[in-house]
């Protein structure tokens, strides 16, 4: 955004801010606890922090979160710009709020394949976030998940088809922004075709530019053309764009300024993924990485955890400007975008209890609709469905967290409870992922619920043992549809793409014959491994 297109009040604010205040506006910090820490208060009050990010560690209840948002905004210096409050509320296992606004995973939306439903979900989520004083949803995920071995994206993606991801992701973003919440598409230029989690190492995607245009970039182009307010960069190296096999996209001027800004024409906010992730921290380091990210063209630098690194990074960017390494005009460009977003989306406003309750109710209704339409019957070669309501032997696993981005909420036993609620008589067993017990065939039907068995050899081995004992056992994948590759001869296989309560309830109704499965796989099942 050029100065001559910036509203006069925004331009006058930029001119009035000190260098320290302007640099502070570029940073987004996280903190521990459900009340502000002394460190976060000091960053807001003394270092002019631009934004905060909430995680589940900050969340207790809607009332508590509204109070937290108001308290944090109260630390802003008189006449200073309000905080821009962000959260990762994608749906499925990446959802920091566990009540109304938690939606099924993006891949469940892909199985339902209804842009109008995606837009409705975005509006419902946005209304609830807005009522809680949250200005930015770090969603939707616009990555095209075409790698079954991807450990960090998977069901966070709408699927493997670029056009589906583009259409559903843009619809969700439009819904959020209709509710005055900034949508942030991620992870640019794409994290879908990796087998490495950037929380732990630096992935490299070396596809040529033609392939990137056809697949990875297509959803981002669509969302940018539709007016998405923010884009998050990824800590993945793209040698064909950055001309450097060891430089994460977040730190590359060729990617951020050249590709995203100049070529795709994006002039909204560019967020970084957390700069404490190992792909940055174990490379150039968090503090130096923040300097390079600003220099590359990023506007909102996320340092999510450590107060010492937050302060050091702000100091390092100030020093880089004072030394001439970064021009102050580069800082001003980002500050204009930040202030314009705060002005356009009403940053600093917090709703009331009645608004939160109404929005949460809407979110629950949408989530139920998505879940019911997403349940996918991949195979029923043995005509096992519907199950008889005789005693059903149910096995499920305590879920593990495959990525640090995820929450762990799908407790073992939840699926058996849902099946019982649907009217079945259940004999339930919860197994540890490392447990490989011997099974015996039962008199009634057997159902096993998997939770990312494709990434858990012990769990996969346990399911194979069960299928030897009872070849007619039904497998329900409640997280990763690719689990089928671990037991390709299973006769009956369903998938829900997540283990949120609406999804478990919907698949239980399918199993007992009270609902028809209508979902369609948004990904291709891999060959047997």
TrEMBL record:
Residues 372-527 form the Glycoside hydrolase family 3 C-terminal domain. One of its GO terms (molecular function) is beta-N-acetylhexosaminidase activity. Residues 19-340 form the Glycoside hydrolase family 3 N-terminal domain. It comes from Halorussus aquaticus. Keywords: Glycosidase, Hydrolase. Its EC number is 3.2.1.52. It comes from the Archaea. The gene is nagZ. This is Beta-N-acetylhexosaminidase. The lineage of its organism: Archaea, Methanobacteriati, Methanobacteriota, Stenosarchaea group, Halobacteria. The keyword Hydrolase applies. Belongs to the glycosyl hydrolase 3 family.
